[in-house]
UniProtKB/TrEMBL annotation:
The keyword Metal-binding applies. Its cofactor is [4Fe-4S] cluster. Residues 6-116 form the MTTase N-terminal domain. InterPro entries: Elp3/MiaA/NifB-like_rSAM, Methylthiotransferase, Methylthiotransferase_N, Methylthiotransferase_N_sf, MiaB-like_bact, rSAM, rSAM_horseshoe, rSAM_sf. It comes from Candidatus Falkowbacteria bacterium CG23_combo_of_CG06-09_8_20_14_all_49_15. This is tRNA (N(6)-L-threonylcarbamoyladenosine(37)-C(2))-methylthiotransferase MtaB. Coiled coil: none annotated.
Amino acid sequence: MGNKKLLFNIYTLGCKVNQCDSAEISRSLRGAGFKVVEKNAAWAIVNSCAVTATAIRKTRQMIAKARRENPEAKIVLSGCWPSAYWSEAKKNSSCAYFFKVNERKKIVNLIVGSQGQTKLEPTACACLIGQKIRYFLKVQDGCQQFCTYCLVPYVRSRLWSKPIKQAVLEVKSALQAGAKEIVISGTHLGWYGKDKKDKKHNTQNLTALVKAILAVPGLPRLRLSSLEPNEVSDELLDLVKKNHNFCPFFHLPLQAGSDRVLKAMGRPYSAQEYIRVISRIRKKIPLAAVSADIIVGFPGETEKDFTATLSLVKKIKFSRLHVFPFSTHEKTAASRFPEQIDNREIKKRADIIRRLGLASAREYQNKFINRSVQVLIEKKIAGAYIGKSEYYFNVPIKAKGNKLVKSGDLVIVPPRGIEPRFRE
Ligand code: SF4
């Protein structure tokens, strides 16, 4: 297999931004003549997550897996774990090199430099071949909102936005390489362009970016990954309404339905304000998918607060709910709050609200049975093609006798039932 020293592998944990970062490292290395392999690589990069204690445990397991699968590899640990807990990560892992989240160029230079090559300045558009059908386009990094439970501002505080021209070029390259859906991603997307110094003449904002991408000829599908609820503008909603290829999907982290808890979390909206955002969305786009994150067991969350969250979730009827049991980080303000909730109680509340989330997802998906949705076929599993609808739920399509469908196709079909994982 050629020069074994040019083989590398990347293991990624955590959010879409981390996945984008790994893809950037991979593109740069491939652009410099390196090759991705699944095992026996010379370099194994573990791009870590530290958002919860579980994420750190999974990172440790991933390092062990990387070592097993690449026994002779030099292991590089990057991402949020070394960024947030440098000494702990160094002490508790057996990796050879450590890099923080914004040190991707250093990783590439280390690996490329090990072959005596000139150090490489990675370019975002280098070598997009081999990307997935759904392309995560990272356009923004950094958050300084400091919600009291969140580690992100401690590891990704520097604000950065990709220039619109560069984003458009990257979209064109991704489409040429076979991507069918562009997912605009960032740590805090609503802050896109906020890093620009010239506030008065700054034309770089999220709607301007979306308009520029929608103008790319032949763009099959566009989606926003996630938005803060207070950052959904009417202009953006109009763009979704008017452009059939801009998915009617909104992931708006709610976190809690009690104003008291939202305030303690440092979230800049009330429960009523959140409801008003959802009403604005549904008034313009009645069938829009609205999903959310919820944190249960935040310090001081009483039964009454939890009931307020349950009522809000029942009222809104989310298309999907992601439930996170609260877990502390010593760096965040919430870890020092009194009235930490017992883990058993957190688990009990998480189970209750997860059940509600599943019922809500079923109710939402039921609306589409025997109605037409547009499915982007991604893979074939156990005799069925699976793809995502514009509303973000998976739709299986029978593969037997269906020679017309293949990965990467966009097909219009009526879903025959709800996604298996949401069934009762
Ligand atoms: S907005 Fe809040 S939850 Fe989101 S990344 Fe920033 S600090 Fe974290």
